[in-house]
Amino acid sequence: MDQRYATSPDQIPGMDTAEMRRRYLVEDLFVADEVRATYTHHDRVVLAGIMPVAGEVPLVGFPEIRSEEFFDHREAGIVNVGGPGAIEVDGTRYDLEHTGCLYVGRGASRVVASSAGPENPAKFYIVSAPAHTSYPTTAVAPGQGTVRELGDPLTSNRRTLNQYIHENGIRSCQVVMGVTTLHDGSMWNTMPAHTHDRRMEAYLYFDLPQDARIIHIFGRPQETRHLVMANEQAVISPSWSVHSGVGTSAYSFVWAMAGENQAFDDMDTFPVAEMR
Fold first, then answer.
1. How far is the C-alpha of 253 from the C-alpha of 204, rounded, in Å?
2. What is residue 261's predicted lDDT score, i.e. its pLDDT?
3. Less Cβ crowding at N or C end of the chain, within 10 Å?
4. Is 41 annotated as contributing to ligand binding?
5. Is 98 annotated as a binding residue?
């Protein structure tokens, strides 16, 4: 498990590109038959990826979280960004198609990931946060969450947002999670950009052509920075940072938050003309 310590906005001006990527960019999440995990001290969130190819892959505890089982004190949202697969939780199997979501509550013991076939393996993206109680493990099929249509093709940001884990959907302690898909011809996400000092957020960009890239904008709105990101890479966004991006083609992304509250619209937006 990789460790990422919390950062202050005052540190940003002194960082070069290599340091910004080392602190905020999460690469190589999906490696055959491994669990790749990153622990960020921003709200103690764990980002992980599992790509089962040869067989089943269990999600077990890590020394860094000091628990025998991964879910002893945690919950998680899981989105499949690959081929068909399944997550088995304490003997119950949940089939997940591409962009399907599973919430796993605190107290789950045996959690095992598998793919329908090695030629098109599942890729399970996991976002986990500490949990104070247990909610039922619940699956939701692609497109069956709370759907919101946002943006305008005239500003190149027409997108469909599917809320899966949220205060009016799948219940959780902290984790809020969903998938946004840009329409053909649109490239901008989350513009105007916003912050929410009460929650950290992480994006996983996917369904992006291998030769395409995302320019992800972060930092204080009056002093922004950017990261150039490829397909199936994640970015950690501290609560003080804006998070927005533009791609060289259309794409999808998993957004996930944890922190003070679960109110999706609790955000502080910044007009484009005021950003620097």
1. 5
2. 73
3. C
4. no
5. no
Q: What is the pTM of this model?
A: 0.95
Distance CA 61, CA 40 (A): 16
pLDDT tens track for 32-67: 999 999 999 999 999 999 999 999 999 999 999 998
Q: Tell me, what DSSP letter sits at residue 183?
A: P
Tell me which of 161-165, 252-256, 257-261 is least confident. 257-261
Question: Long-range contact list for 139-144, CB < 8 A, 24+ apart?
Answer: 139/94, 139/95, 139/96, 139/100, 139/101, 139/102, 139/103, 140/100, 140/101, 140/102, 140/164, 140/169, 140/170, 141/97, 141/100, 142/97, 142/98, 142/99, 142/100, 143/99
Residue indicated by tokens 């020394």 = 63
Annotated binding residue at 149? no
Instruction: Report whether 194 belongs to an annotated binding site.
Output: yes
Q: How far apart are CA 184 and CA 171, in angstroms?
A: 32
Q: Is the pLDDT of residue 163 over 90?
A: yes
Is 269's pLDDT higher than 90?
no
Q: State the DSSP string of 144-163.
A: -SEEEEE--GGGT--EEEEE
Q: Is the pLDDT of residue 10 over 90?
A: yes
Check residue 197 and report its DSSP letter. T
At a CB cut-off of 8 Å and minimum separation 6, what does 165 contact? 77, 101, 103, 172, 175, 176, 177, 178
Alpha-carbon span 238 to 232, nearest angstrom: 20
Separation between Cα atoms, residue 210 and residue 188, nearest integer Å = 18
Cα 149 from Cα 214, distance rounded (Å): 21
DSSP helix/strand/coil, 232:
coil
pLDDT in the model for residue 196: 80
Q: How many CA atoms lie within 13 A of 122 on its CB side?
A: 30
